[in-house]
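Per-record layout

source: Jeotgalibacillus soli
name: Transposase
length: 145
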Amino acid sequence: MIYSLVARDLERIPTIKDLIKRLKHDYMFRLNCGFLLSDAIPSEASHTRMLSKIAESPVLERVQETLILQAMTEGFITDDTVAIDATHIEARDQAPSNEEKSKPEPKKRGRKSKEEKKNGFKNKRNEKRLSLFSRKELKLNLMRL
């Protein structure tokens, strides 16, 4: 059952209920977790009790200490600095700046002035001319091919 709990974390299965569904339907996963096809799959309550017993006992801390000591003796980790953190945070070299971003001016509500209307029409005409021009160029380029 411990293998299935470890596999749950490795496979990123969110709930114990989903773990049990996967154990029931995926035979290879079931065999990899140590359950035979003839074995009954433990219930959600059994998995939860197992998790609470493991959390209460100091077994995982001992396993971690022995792994760290073994890695130090084999030279994978130096004893200068050892820091283990499992929280998911975004790493940064510097603290983020506290400068406030300037807010854009809110758009005016209501009718547009005559100048804005004229500028708007000019912009639309220019865009239309550019789009027609680009269409003509595109047609000519396609005809050349």
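summary: DSSP finds six helices and no strands in the chain. Helices lie at 2-10, 16-25, 27-32, 44-56, 59-74, 114-144.
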